[in-house]
Amino acid sequence: MRNFQILKDTSRSALLYFAAGIGFLLVASSAEAVTSADADLAFNSLNKIYWDSSAKFFRKDEQGTKKADFWFAAQLWDTVMDQYDRTHSADVKHQIDDVYDGFVEKYPDWTKNKYNDDIMWWTIACTRAYGITQNERYLKKAKDSFDFVYDNFTDDTLGGGVYWINQRTSKNSCVNCPAVIAAARLSVLLKEPAYLEKARKIYAWQKKTLTDGTGKVFDSISYNKTRQTTRVGRGSLTYNQGTYIGAAVLLYQQTKDKTYLDDAIKTAEWTKANLCVTDQCILRNEGQGDAGAFKGIFVRYMKLLINEGGRTEFLPWMKANADAAWHNRRPTDNIIGSDWTKMPTGKVQSQTATSAVAVVLCFADDEPKH
After folding, report:
1. Domains of the chain, first to last
2. pLDDT tens digit string along 57-101?
């Protein structure tokens, strides 16, 4: 993941609708709610525009042959699994295997990637793929990948935590929160309590170092060896908020320590109050590039909080986001951009489109699953 300027979206777009001669001001999400058929169409449209079945790889752009970048491909793979969770389709299950096959053909050795968060996103996705397929190759790859990052890039500098890149310049939420998720899942799948302890240790460091108790998750902490000073990047992004929520919910599931659930709730509430636009609290436009993938990650872990944490009070908010995103799809091909309050006007990258598909797939159903 690369550094970038946080985009501020102050848009308050709404749609003007007239009925019986009376004007009503409505936000986009007040349109007809997303249906199961809409969710299928959203997923099929993503495949039609971006999936290259012969190369077994999602394209980065709407046209051309350039493949999705390393960590973007993991988000697209997660979206395929979002669809499988809804449908249990044999075709989608086959695509899960295809995505992995195409990826490992291009990237057989993940340890060569200097970005540890990129490796951790694939580690998380592999634990999920194992849960669906029971194919041992996914579990082995997840274990080996987590162990590589944890064993080589975790130390007591800055109080603990995992380094973002192999130059050891900073420790970021984008790798530490996913590391908690990966370790928590591995502890269950491998039946090895040591992974749970690693998850709790990283989480404790993350909470102490990169949160402030309000529900805001900071981006990173870095150390300047020359000046011997530390700096906390206090910016907040939806994907860090989301993975912190996911980490907390998974630890709550295993430990029954309500402190973790309270952390998740507070983080969701802070996000709703601070990273949204419109009266319906639609998640803000964070742009394309790396940021295009962020909201899909957030909504995926909000689903975990709602379903596994039992916090159904957040369901209307998430459904409003799904409805707004789908309502503002591009009518020619059903592709959705980075701004879920209006239709895209330019080209949409696959990692941006997949975030919107994720919210539609996760929240098209009428009721949460318990």
Report:
1. 15-363 (1.50.10.20)
2. 999 999 889 999 999 999 999 999 999 999 999 999 999 999 999
- CA atoms of 198 and 116, how far apart (whole Å): 16
Q: What is the CA radius of gyration of the chain?
A: 20
Place of tokens 């995926």: 300
> Beta-carbon neighbour count of residue 250 at 10 Å?
27
pTM across the whole model:
0.91
| Alpha helix positions (H), 69-115 | 70-87, 90-106
At 116, is the secondary structure helix, strand, or coil? helix
The DSSP-derived string for 271-329 is HHHHSEETTTTEEP---SGGGGGHHHHHHHHHHHHHHTS--GGGHHHHHHHHHHHHHTS
pLDDT tens string 173-221 = 999 999 999 999 999 999 999 999 999 999 999 999 999 999 999 999 9
- Residue 112 in 3-state DSSP? helix
